[in-house]
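Troubleshooting: if your tokenizer reports a length mismatch, compare your output against this known-good record of 383 residues.
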Amino acid sequence: MDLQGINEFIDNKYEEGLKLLEQLVNIDSPSGNKECVDEVGKVICNYFDQYGIDYQVVQNENYGDFIIATIKKDKPGKILLLGHRDTVFPVGTAKQRPFKIEGGRAYGPGVADMKSGIVSSILASLALKELGEEMSDIEILITSDEEIGSPSSRKIIEERAKSAIAVFNLEPGRPDGSIVTARRGSAHLAFHIQGRAAHSGVNIEQGVSAIEELGHKIIALQELTDLDKGITVNLGVVQGGVNTNVVAPEASGKVHIGFWTINDFNNVLKKIKTIFETSYIHGTISKLEGDISFLPMEKHDGVQKLYQIVQQAASSLDLIIPEQHTKGASDAGFPSSLGIPTICGMGPVGGNWHSENEYIELDTFLPRTKLLAHSMILASRQL
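Known-good structure output:
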């Protein structure tokens, strides 16, 4: 493969890539604001138009539309690149602290998580399109609701991934330069407890306290966390009752579960269901609902094989790219759970995600883009 040609092409796109990144960062795109997320999508599609990259926009009723770009090549199979353009920041953030470069870093809302990864995927794919490398098709899928658990994106990710020979998710590289070969899964549950109201001064004995019931359940839920196994159960939101002199007729809340394997999730969910099926206070009725948001990215043989391919690509660029297992969940869990070779954290190196100090290391922008391009070619030939 023409490594020198690929590297030179990407080098020559540095300023253009930064300009595109600046445009994306300076448009607010909170997950729940379809109009804003779609505005970012328009900038991306305009760039595709500029270089004759075929794409389709798939309508999405409640969140931003999906964008699927395709570069047809000459070998069987396809390489899928994943990216999300939504962020956790509210409208007005980009105006308050727009894209800036300072001290070798670029800052701005979503600059690392993960608008720089989107730009990197586009430039790497463009290099392989323009230089005519012999390889599998390239598909770029850009989604819109990852930061809230990909409620609408999971289906299309799984649909597009099932025919892929490899998937690269362009979440940011870890601060030490690592890529990610395993991630925990994430689940969100909601519950409601029904009791019976009564005047707490006059006839407290006639009441059934939903809050008292919740107290028993909280203690039982806390016992399910197993840090050695990486299983966490967090009761993050609770509410209930109507007044201090009223026996609480109801209580509700939300629970988050983190886990490394599907088996661990199934086991802990069974225990949680038992807790909510049990009435510690006679007369209470509990309802539990919810399920997995992000599947775990387990390091199976396909992931290991793709990691070895990335290591080959890194060697050709004189890069050292370690691997990391990270507790945070991502879209990478969906394709990896289908058995597809998947690597996450392929984007430029960054840190302080979801904060006002979010950044990328500018000196990793080009090397990580080249790493992606080289890895795609090798994956096309070895998988």
